[in-house]
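Ticket #4471: structure export looks truncated?
Reporter: QA, pipeline team
Priority: medium

Steps to reproduce: submit the single chain below to the structure queue and open the exported record.
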Amino acid sequence: MVWVCVISLFLQTVVVYALNSSDDSISKETIVENNTSSQSDDSIDISDIYENNVIKIYNTKQLQAIGSNSIVTSTDNDESNYGTGQQISVNDEYITYSLSSKYQLMKDISLNGNDIWTLPSDFTGTFNHGTVDENSTLYDSSTDTIYIYNDYQLKIIQSDNSENEPVMSQDMLPECVGMGQPVYSDNSSNYLTYSKSHNYVLSKNFTGEMPETKANQISNISTENCEGRDFNGQVVKTIGDKTYILIGNEEQLRKIGSGVTVYGAVYQVYLHAAKWYVDEDENGNPIMLYGGDADLKKSQNGNEDFGFGEKNIHDKDKKQSKYSLYPYIWGRCGVNQSTGEIDPTLDIDKATNQKYSTNANYIIFRNIDLSNENWTPLMFQGTMIGAKADGKSTLWNNDTSVIDYSKATDLNIGDKPVISNVNVSQTSELDVGEQMGVGFFATLSNEASDSDLGLSKGTVTVKNLKFNKINVDNETTKTKFDQTLISGLTSTLGLTLGALLDGLTWLLTFGTVDAGLRDTLSSILNARKDDPTALATGCFAGRVVGDVAISDCELDDVKVTNVNSNTGGFIGYISGKTEYDGYQKD
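Actual output as written to the record:
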């Protein structure tokens, strides 16, 4: 045996055992790891494999050794020579690939998707790693490679359902796995999944940490096939400084102007130990009581076909609960429209804080067929934009400054949704207390400002819509107004009639309703009754009055008839500041 001793100041002593080439006995070399110490000529440098209490990982064999407690050797960084080098020890203790050791990946390591490496479930060690953010490469389409940054991703790949689990744009961040938007490969309309057929690379910035994820909060809400939205059942979205109601069916479109509450999805909850919990059925699924106004069909909500609105929200039913034998109290809750979370404390009437008003903001994101019954012309003072996802795009770009879905920076104006089979038939006297003009829109007009009655609140906008097969037929020459409307005046009448009286809305702001105001309103309605533009007729709109912008709207296969004057294929009558851009009519 040969003993080589190096005398110096040191922080720790590393001892390496090796076979002596001459007599096959074990020799022992002492190597001092300290910047101030010297090494003998017989010392070996092990910093490539072990340094500062960290085991350095270069290859798959080393990964597979983690948790095995096998001894680290000096040649483990070379996969072909793994385990054949000198065994490394510190202070007479071997360095091993233990569950509690510190590790660092020195490079990206390719993994086999069909036999993916797994980090032991009882791993308590750490991985040193660099910074990972949303700009880190998650998918390389040129090589069909998905990069793995955390143990959540590994567990998804290992799952039996990996073929159906989508790769989401924020999956590189362990706290955000399952969030963001689906990732698509080039030239494909199908989003990526963690299918085992892809190439996988373990990033050198991999971490074994598994913090509580935001996705856990929304795991009960599907993000698959949500048609460009953040999650299925979503009916409200804030983009910039505007909140939009998402319109996905005929029932919603017909409710615009009704003032009824907008409802998102509704779920069953139970009260236990003074706390509300999301209820589950025998299969562990949350119990849906309503799919949301925009997702009435089973194919959209995944559960059943629902009727529209409050009256069609199912009541709580403890028989559906896996806790039905327990003495709990059952109730209903809404879905947070900012996070997609089923919130057991959220009142269903307050989940959206929106109503189908004439001056709200709307995004139409699906094609809508109106052939079931005649269309009632819409008095409108808000914003209506068509934005239909093409299977690859999203409807908006979410703001990365927030960690949930609460805010988007801008709207993606994609394909035009098609509103088809619009039939408008005006055969009876037109009631000017309800409607002025005949068309898909009766009147488009801006509201007067609350602070300056001579100014507009803002531009009314209609954008990126396609209409197919519109038939507008106005056969009446008479108008009327209901006298009971005047008799039943309240102090809120100004809000009710604002959509009807265009620029004269300011006349309604006299405070409490008295006889003088009733006379004034009666005069206004009489004037409207005698106004020939009340019968103005167009396929798109009967009347456009005030500050209105119409852009990128297309009409195909249209027919309009009117026994009166003020008739147009697009608009019957225009007054005020109106802007057109990209208008098409075939």
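Status: closed, not a bug. The export was complete when the record was re-opened. Leaving a note from the reviewer for reference: Residues 437 and 535 are 5 Å apart (CA to CA).
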